[in-house]
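Q: Given only this backbone (229 positions), what sequence would you predict?
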């Protein structure tokens, strides 16, 4: 029940400081003169969108049933019903089991990954994102196509990037870069999926319409075990 309710929406607030702290022993990274958080991207289902956005921030994120703190780099661009480009690369800092691997949700992930859409061959639900945002010098922030020294990235299939069960998502994303005084960037995202409201409603009657429950309604036991367990 809780997971069905959480699946209804998405929200994130994050930012980037002038100097990014080191991680895993790496050197601190400069945000540069234009902190990487800029643009506006609006999505009305997976097939209608407008705008462009790039950001590389640390976010407090609620992404459907996944939530926590995450380092998130993403590039989005699209116009109306035409092809769009969506690349998201996330590194969990402190996230729940739905947004990390090597835990008791691995079997649930394998189950939903096997429920492929017959047209686009995409899984039912995607909560883990590790797309390569851009090539070139890894010390740079800008994605492929925006770097002066970049030769471009491989073609990328961005359709149904959230999974086919969440294609109806409506969302707005905003990145604001402040290069003059604080040299920081801010990122905001908010959205919802009307179909998940319906799924939550039927779940009140113990009906798992999308077979996306990780736990049994009555016993609370895990429904799916990983093939590697």
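A: Predicted residues:
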């Amino acid at each position: 029940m809780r997971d069905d309710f959480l699946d209804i929406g998405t929200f994130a607030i994050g930012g980037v400081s002038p100097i990014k702290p080191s991680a895993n022993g790496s050197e601190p990274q400069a945000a540069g003169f234009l902190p990487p958080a800029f643009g506006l991207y609006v999505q009305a289902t997976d097939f209608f969108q407008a705008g462009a956005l790039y950001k590389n921030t640390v976010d407090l994120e609620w992404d459907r049933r996944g939530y926590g703190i995450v380092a998130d780099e993403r590039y989005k661009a699209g116009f109306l019903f035409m092809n769009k480009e969506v690349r998201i690369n996330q590194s969990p800092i402190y996230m729940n089991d739905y947004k990390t691997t090597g835990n008791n949700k691995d079997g649930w992930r394998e189950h939903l990954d096997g429920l492929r859409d017959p047209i686009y061959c995409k899984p039912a639900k995607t909560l883990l994102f590790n797309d390569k945002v851009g090539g070139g010098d890894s010390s740079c922030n800008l994605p492929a196509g925006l770097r002066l020294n970049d030769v471009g990235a491989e073609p990328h299939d961005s359709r149904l990037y959230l999974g086919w069960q969440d294609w109806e998502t409506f969302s707005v994303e905003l990145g604001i870069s402040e290069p003059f005084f604080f040299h920081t960037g801010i990122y905001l995202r908010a959205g919802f999926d009307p179909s998940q409201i319906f799924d939550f409603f039927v779940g009140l009657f113990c009906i798992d319409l999308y077979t996306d429950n990780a736990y049994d309604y009555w016993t609370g036991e895990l429904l799916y075990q990983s093939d590697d367990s």
